[in-house]
Amino acid sequence: MTTIAIVYYSAYGHIAELSEAVAEGIGAVEGAVYSRLRIPEFSDPAIQVALQRQDQVSSKLGKHFGLTKRVEDYKKVQQDQAMIPVATMDDLREADGIIWGFPTYLGTMPGQVKSFLDQAGQFCTTGELEGKPTALFTSAGSIHGGHEAALLTSLVPLLHFGMIYVGLPYTENTEYLTDKAVGGSPYGASTLAGPDGSKRPCDDERKMAGRLGTRVAIIADSLKKGRFLSCNKNVLGTKGSG
Ligand SMILES: Cc1cc2nc3c(=O)[nH]c(=O)nc-3n(C[C@H](O)[C@H](O)[C@H](O)COP(=O)(O)O)c2cc1C
């Protein structure tokens, strides 16, 4: 059995929704199973208030971004996700592959995700994630808002862990070869939420997210069968080679 962990953070639900499409793609691979796990919200109440940005709702851009409704959406999404288990370091250790999902914040990953990855920093030296396939999916308010930049900048820590990065090739994902506003790119899956967050993941975006899940599951399975995951340190001579 090949186990893929989908580890995600979602404030307004787009990433939570796209994680279901990723899960479907993993589930389509024989012998592959998935777990959906969440990166928790910051617990400091001062940060909570800042996140909900109550003081900005009446500004011009606050209206454009639909901030009044967002506060309500945020509360509901957090409640809905309460039953999703919080990801632990053991979940990362035990998975044969890990797919990370998070919204694009300022063209990169949210602080919540960076904080979680920092806590996992030990894996750089223990090598426990080395050789495992990994991939990313994100959401962004605008097609010009940096969803591709978020994926490109966020793959850096995964390479520090020694993971094998999996993207979305052109030939399988012709949906992103378009001049229409649709997520997805060679760097990973994505969805465009709209400036006010009112768009939900469309069929094309879900298809590409599903294929990403399938691709990681097949690669993890192949690596496992090739004994790369269990033997990689000996093969690469980084452990036990004297
Ligand atoms: C702090 C913050 C920063 C954001 N930065 C960007 C950004 O750089 N580019 C962009 O297109 N959208 C940005 N957004 C919009 C989010 O990407 C969008 O709300 C998100 O994709 C929704 O995902 P979720 O519903 O899973 O939380 C930002 C939102 C927040 C709250």
Work out the helix count.
10
Q: Write down the Rg.
A: 18 Å
For the largest beta-sheet, the strand count, sense and barrel status come to:
6 strands, parallel
The CATH homologous superfamily name equals: Flavodoxin domain
Average residue-wise pLDDT = 90
Unreliable stretches covering 5 or more consecutive residues: 235-242
Q: What is the CATH first-level class name?
A: Alpha Beta
User: Bound small molecules, which ones?
Assistant: flavin mononucleotide
| Beta-strand content | 5-15%
Principal-axes geometry comes out as: globular
* Total DSSP E strands: 6
CATH architecture: 3-Layer(aba) Sandwich
Pfam family, one: FMN_red
Family: Belongs to the WrbA family.
Protein name: NAD(P)H dehydrogenase (Quinone)
GO cellular component, one term: membrane
Task: Give a written overview of the molecule.
The chain has 242 residues and is of the alpha/beta class. The chain has one domain (2-236): Rossmann fold (3-Layer(aba) Sandwich), CATH 3.40.50. The chain is 44% helix and 14% strand. It is built from ten helices and six strands; from the N terminus they run βαβααααβααβαββαα. It has helices at 14-27, 45-52, 60-64, 67-80, 89-94, 111-119, 122-126, 147-160, 203-225, 228-236; strands at 2-8, 32-38, 97-103, 133-140, 164-165, 189-192. Strands 1, 2, 3, 4, 5 and 6 form a six-stranded parallel sheet that branches. Helix 1 (14-27) links the parallel strand 1 and strand 2 (32-38). It is globular. The protein starts with a strand and ends in a 6-residue tail after the last helix. Mean pLDDT is 90; it is low at 235-242. Flavin mononucleotide is lined by residues 10-15, 103-107, 139-142, 145-146, 193, 197.
